[in-house]
Inverse folding.
């Protein structure tokens, strides 16, 4: 069977050592640069095996130019052996939900239209603690008008973040929704007043494209891959500064012209990403090694 194969693509971190060309997909070098940001179970063994097996591949595909540079530096891989290929956003995020569907979803979660929204698995690099600090700096009346809503499973090392969100819930100015279906997530994105994504490290940042497609203005970090993917269509903040995040949150809900401008730019930016193009470029890499 193996003799009939011309190429093997390892789409995750399990990279085999074979006699035929191997392409490996690498999302980011986080296990090397910030091991404290990943699950602690077998952390050091996983890191050792990953570092060893990664050099069994002949070529690498990753998801942004930023990550390609980071992978080259931390894995000591020649940059020419790494091809960045962007992800894309699902067409469903471009479909505008009707008023009845929006009302139905909002009622299900006991929410009203207009809120600050974050989406992502709760873990240290998602920076929920500083997001909450920034939110709490806003005027109290604004907190009630635009509550902070966090959608995401409890990943790891997030107990303090969850406790903070529960305190906001008790005050009537926040919600932690844990898991929601893809359909509900799409509707809630369209109901949000702004999407706030001050992550400390992202290889791509797909949620900002989903927000762009949903016609929701975006606030995101001025670091890692996020400015590259946002392409000038989002407000950029210093993710380590709650003041910077809070200032952007205040601006985006108090300046309608700014928000509408970001919505228009975001929708256009989201259309620049295509799964067809992702597939085409992936096949190009395959052909270059066969």
């Amino acid at each position: 069977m193996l003799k009939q194969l011309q190429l093997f693509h390892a789409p995750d971190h399990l990279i085999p050592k074979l006699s035929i060309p191997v392409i490996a997909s690498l999302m980011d070098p986080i296990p090397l640069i910030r091991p404290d940001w990943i699950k602690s179970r077998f952390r050091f063994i996983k890191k050792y095996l990953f570092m060893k097996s990664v050099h069994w591949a002949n070529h690498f595909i990753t998801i942004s130019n930023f990550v390609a540079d980071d992978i080259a530096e931390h894995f000591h891989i020649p940059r020419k052996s790494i091809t960045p290929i962007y992800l894309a956003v699902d067409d469903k995020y471009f479909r505008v939900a009707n008023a009845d569907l929006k009302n139905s979803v909002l009622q299900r979660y006991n929410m009203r239209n207009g809120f600050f929204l974050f989406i992502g698995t709760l873990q240290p690099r998602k920076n929920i603690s500083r997001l909450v600090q920034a939110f709490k700096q806003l005027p109290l009346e604004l907190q009630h008008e635009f509550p902070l809503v966090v959608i995401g499973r409890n990943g790891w090392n997030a107990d303090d973040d969850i406790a903070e969100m529960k305190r906001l819930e008790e005050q009537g100015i926040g919600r932690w929704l844990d898991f929601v279906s893809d359909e509900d997530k799409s509707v809630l994105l369209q109901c949000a007043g702004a999407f706030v994504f001050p992550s400390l490290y992202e290889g791509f940042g797909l949620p900002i494209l989903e927000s762009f497609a949903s016609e929701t203005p975006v606030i995101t970090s001025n670091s890692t891959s996020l400015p590259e993917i946002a392409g000038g269509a989002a407000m950029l903040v210093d993710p380590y500064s709650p003041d910077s995040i809070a200032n952007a949150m205040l601006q985006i809900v108090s300046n309608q012209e700014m928000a509408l401008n970001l919505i228009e730019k975001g929708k256009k930016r989201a259309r620049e990403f295509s799964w067809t193009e992702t597939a085409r470029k992936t096949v190009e890499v395959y052909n270059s090694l066969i």
Notes: Residues 2-88+274-289 form a domain with the Rossmann fold fold (CATH 3.40.50.2000). The chain has two domains: 2-88+274-289, 91-270.
